[in-house]
């Protein structure tokens, strides 16, 4: 998937645990874990806004686009 979620990096920079983030933004720890692992198909803007507010960051600090390399021939 070309969108990489770097939520774990931002949590480390802010010295915050997933549990604390979950409590601050009103979602479960399991959902934070799914976001961190990139196993989600999407994220609501409302949730993204709360994450950015809690971590004092921009969406681009946690969502990174990486083009897929073609293995073609």
UniProtKB/TrEMBL annotation:
HTH cro/C1-type domain mapped to chain residues: 13-62
Molecular function terms, GO-annotated: DNA binding
InterPro entries given in the database record: Cro/C1-type_HTH, Lambda_DNA-bd_dom_sf
Protein name from the UniProt record: Transcriptional regulator, XRE family
Species name: Roseibium suaedae
